[in-house]
From TrEMBL:
Keywords: DNA-binding, Transcription, Transcription regulation. GO terms for molecular function: DNA-binding transcription factor activity; transcription cis-regulatory region binding. This is HTH-type transcriptional regulator YfiR. It holds the Pfam family TetR_C_31. It comes from Streptomyces griseorubiginosus. PROSITE patterns: HTH_TETR_2 (PS50977).
Amino acid sequence: MAHVTAAERRPQLIKAAIDLMTREGVAAGSTRAISAELGVAQATVHYTFGTKEELYRAVMEQLTEDLVSQVEQAAPTHGNFEESLFALAEALWQTVLSQPESYQLLTELTLYALRTPHLSQALDNHFAGITAVTSQLIEQAADRTGHRLQQPTATTARFFLAAFDGMSMQHLSMPDEKAEQACLKALVSAVVAMA
């Protein structure tokens, strides 16, 4: 059997962890279960990541990176400021609708990280990254449309994300397409009024 380097094994283990924890939850994500998911020895996980928490950190980073990439690709290039923000919100909402299990996993990992000191930096990085990209997209929409922002962009981004996270949690708990569309429009209107 050919030797696989830690650099090659790393993305395989992250994917195996995501697949397993998406199906069965974070509590099921032991190093033993993750190694079995990929069909490798449990020692491979420890050799590649050191600890389970380091693997969880890598999973959080991967989920965040995937989400940011999808939203950045959907950044609008036309329309006024409100239309641009709605297009961004709609693109982000489509990721919730098409990948609810990823949002559920990210929510579970966030709650797990709140009680795991070793993951506090990963949690900080996740929220800082999401806030930074949201701020950047709001600024780009304002610059492109000539809209003068009345609030610091980071404040507007945090407001948007707080409401969006609440909507995502409601969707996971009790989906209601009609109500969600109305809330999404109201969220964008509130963000535009604030900005």
